[in-house]
Amino acid sequence: MTNNDPPRVGALLRTAAAHAVPLVRDTPDTALGAPTPCAEYDVRALLNHLFDVVVNFQALAAKRSADFSGAPDRLADADWRDRFEDETGKLVDAWSAPGADEGTTGSLGLPARTVGCMVLLDLTVHAWDLARATGRRFEPDPAVVEGLAEEVEGMAPMARKAGVFGEAVEPPADATAFERLLATTGRAPRPAATHDPRPSGTRASATTESD
Fold first, then answer.
1. Angstrom distance (rounded) from CA 61 to CA 117
2. How many CB atoms lie within 10 A of CB 193?
3. Distance (Å, whole) CA 39 – CA 26
4. Residue 6: per-residue pLDDT
5. Distance CA 71, CA 97 (A)
6. Which candidate, 105, 124, 131, 165, has a CA 20 to 30 Å from the CA of 181?
């Protein structure tokens, strides 16, 4: 790796996980029914989706097939927070393995780095969704945002066609890099506090095209 090479996906995931896992761990059971910025998910469904992504993208790092066909309730047991942290650690390890972000992976044969950035995006924007839904603040590490920016712009047309991203939102004139990324996925970076947090049509997971 030279000084001009982008950071490894595993390194970016490790940084993103350090921000996202505490947010998940501190989510109270009383918040699980709250709406989120993802129109089809309440907090429980959002966490189940993110949990499923974290588990399945371990296989994609190893160039194995992922299976998103089931819909287990991974929050059914009281230790789900511990298990989420454990599985996120396994995800980081999987994408930190030599060659994980090289070549292609998934049923569509996408570049492995692009697939790795999909789970990185999910871990980052869904942490923001969770924070918005539960009245908290979330700001990812700038290195994660920088690592995602070009990949997200590149995957956006495919993601919108698949209904994964909503239509791009015009960001504020003084938007941060993260707010611009959120706007690309179809999220309003600064929604009015009195409004329902769900923008129309936003699913905002990049995962459906990679399994």
1. 11
2. 7
3. 23
4. 87
5. 28
6. 105
Contact 181/120 with Cβ under 8 angstroms? Answer: no
In this predicted model, which residue has the larger pLDDT, 49 or 198? 49
In whole angstroms, give the CA distance from residue 209 to residue 211.
6
Q: Which residues make Cβ contacts (< 8 Å) with residue 34, sequence separation at least 6? A: 42, 43, 133, 134
| Position 4 confidence tier, pLDDT thresholds 50, 70, 90 | confident
- Whole-model pTM: value is 0.90
* Residue 147 near residue 43, CB atoms below 8 Å: no
Evaluate whether 209 touches 158 at the Cβ level (below 8 Å): yes
Q: What is the pLDDT of residue 67?
A: 87
136-186: pLDDT as tens digits = 999 999 999 999 999 999 999 999 998 889 999 999 999 999 999 999 999
Tokens 């309730």: give the residue.
73
CA dihedral 138, 144, 150, 153 (to 10 degrees): -30
- For 105, phi then psi, to 5°, come to -160, 165
Residue 110 identity: L
CB of 96 closer than 8 Å to CB of 10: yes
Residues 6+ apart with CB under 8 A from 162: 208, 209
**Of 76, 82, 84, 90, whose CA–CA distance to 44 is shortest?**
76
